Amino acid sequence: MTRLTDFTLAQARDALKARSISARELTQAYLDGIAALNPRINAYITVTPELALAQADASDAKLAAGQGGSLEGIPLGIKDLFCTEGVRTTAASRILGEFTPPYESTVSGNLKRDGGIFLGKLNLDEFAMGSSNATSAFGPVENPWSRANDPAKRLVPGGSSGGSAAAIAARLALGTTATDTGGSIRQPAAFCGVAGIKPTYGRCSRFGVVAFASSLDQAGPIARDVTDCALMLNSMAGFDPKDSTSVDIAVPDFAAAVARGVKGLRIGIPREFRMDGMPAEIEALWQQGIAWLKAEGASIVDISLPHTKYALPTYYIVAPAEASSNLARYDGVRFGAREKGADLVELYEKTRAAGFGAEVRRRIMIGTYVLSAGYYDAYYLKAQQVRALIKRDFDLAWEKCDAILTPATPSAAFGLDEKHDDPVAMYLNDVFTVTANLAGIPGMAVPAGLDANGLPLALQVLGKPFDEETVFAVSGAVERAAGFKATPQVMA
Amino acid sequence: MSVDTAAIRRIAKLARIHVEEEALPGLAAEFNGILQWIEQLQQVDTSGVEPMAGGGATALRWRADEVTDGAQAERVLANAPEREGEYFSVPKVVE
After folding, report:
1. What's the complex ipTM?
2. What are the residue boundaries of the Amidase domain, all occurrences included (chain A) (predicted)?
């Protein structure tokens, strides 16, 4: 091993503890990579080199004294949806202006407590609304991977956590925070050939995370492999009295679960995930995944999740409704950007028109519509009822299986210039991921193969509420069987 | 159900987002595309189904009704676009 950025998070942690590398040289290696590649990849909105190096020196002092937390000296990137004390937080929107939080989100605070070093704030779709990172007010993120037959074509990293996934793939961070409301951790992880887990709703605190759809939003990590994700989640997760939906239960040793194996586990294969027009490569990868788990001693069970086809339309009522309510706070009065108005209403209307991008405006208005008098029952109430049926599908499935295996996305990464004319075509990206948000269950994307053009494809593992350990066990088995070692064309 | 430009104007007003007149027809067309797509939910029989409001399975926690925070005017006002003393300032509301 010659380069510092070759270490996985687990390897770097061991090398730091053994003092064979220093936190400062590791951090500097990542900062050098960012300086060289971020102008092209645009994974970071804000880079904080001085803060990072000061943190690294503090970590080196602790490590030299034989102290330090579980992530002491590990360079991390923070999705710019997490409030970071004293560092500008944008949600990739113009409307937040120069907003600089006077407080730290619980999840990023947990990582700091454990010795993580923050390199900067990562790009995303504006307010996490998107599947391509193209709605960011700070410009799109480029996927570090490209097609073998069309290397010049710029591809999307997925979204909304496009900066988080691209930074891991291009080795511009060892671990990143991300959030997932309909697939925003798993879809970009899949597109960038890295691992990402959306934990159970309530596992990670939402305090200090800019809210999109509060009943669906959940923070989680994106990292190089399944073990690195487990180490990140072990730090990020945990009860927080500041989030009323945070659940007060013990955080198990996720990293230990990765090696557990799948012998005796029942793996459900939902027949409704076999979509019309699904590319043959995706189907083949899914069959391969089934064969891998069978070979490792799992039993394969056919299951039915009959309301799957209604999940996306349900999501596109529930999420915009919650967003229209959550984003009412951006009115130009207490923080963020302000446009002048002759009166208060004009100030609100002009600030929000200038501050929000087109997709955010569209979703706020859809949400306003489905919550408005006369339409509430037909849309919002109906969607909440279908959501209950989607959750019941999973409750019934758990009687027959311990985890579920599906493809993570319906395709590999697409071009920066594709799918932007039709909102519904863009929304279909989340067809395999969104049910987990509606049901509140954990799901993980694991890189498992390459398509004919050399782009990464991933499998998704879903688990029971608060049974991330089984999700890690199954994901670990998929990862070992797949032996995914490919790397992107652009990498530090 | 479909919406026309008058409905879009009303929704924009409710959402407190200024929309130029010439943008209304395009927004109405996008809206109708999305609404037509979510219309398929009407096929689902939901009679007697309790609507699911939250993301978690458990009921919300209770806590004691006591002050746990406060007296941080400077931090609260630190990001204000405009302020006057310890207050946010806005255009005159009452004539």
Report:
1. 0.95
2. 25-471
